[in-house]
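Hypothesis: this fold can be encoded by more than one sequence.
Test: take the C-alpha cells below, design a sequence, compare later.
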C-alpha cells in the first residue's frame, strides 16, 4: 500500500486556502517541538460563522495536507462546531494518515483551536 492516500497527496500538491488574512478575527500559531514544524491559522468570522480561513504551514507533507483539509472542513461552520473538530476527523477526511504521522494532524486541530480562542478572547475584550 502507498504510504499516503491520494487525498493526502492531492492536498499536499495543491493545498487549499494557503495564505494570510491581514485583518483576521482570530489567529493561532502552534508548533511541534519534536519535529520543529509550525502551523499558523487565520480566521475571518462574521456573526459566529467562519467566513474565511487561511493557513501557513512550515512542515511536512502530512501537516500541509492536514491544514488544507482542516480549512476546508471548517469554512462556513459555526464557531462552536469548528471547536469540535478533531485531528481524527481531519485524518479520516484525508482517507487516513500513517500512524507515525497522526501527530501532524494534531497540529491542525491545535492551530484551529488556538485561532478560535484568540477570536473569543478578542470578542470578550470588546465587551
Ligand atoms: Fe512535523 Fe509532520 S513531521 S508535523
Amino acid at each position: 500500500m502507498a504510504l499516503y492516500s491520494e487525498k493526502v497527496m492531492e492536498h499536499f500538491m495543491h493545498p487549499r486556502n494557503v495564505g494570510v488574512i491581514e485583518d483576521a478575527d482570530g489567529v493561532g500559531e502552534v508548533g511541534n517541538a519534536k519535529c520543529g514544524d509550525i502551523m499558523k491559522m487565520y480566521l475571518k468570522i462574521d456573526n459566529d460563522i467562519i467566513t474565511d480561513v487561511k493557513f501557513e504551514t512550515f512542515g511536512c507533507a502530512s501537516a500541509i495536507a492536514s491544514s488544507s483539509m482542516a480549512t476546508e472542513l471548517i469554512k462556513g461552520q459555526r464557531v462552536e462546531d469548528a471547536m469540535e473538530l478533531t485531528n481524527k476527523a481531519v485524518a479520516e477526511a484525508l482517507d487516513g494518515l500513517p500512524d507515525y504521522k497522526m501527530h501532524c494532524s494534531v497540529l491542525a486541530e491545535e492551530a484551529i483551536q488556538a485561532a478560535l480562542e484568540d477570536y473569543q478572547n478578542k470578542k470578550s475584550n470588546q465587551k
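Strands lie at 26-31, 38-46, 49-58. Residues 32, 35, 37, 59-60, 62-63, 104, 107 surround FE2/S2 (inorganic) cluster (CB under 6 Å).
Hypothesis status: open.
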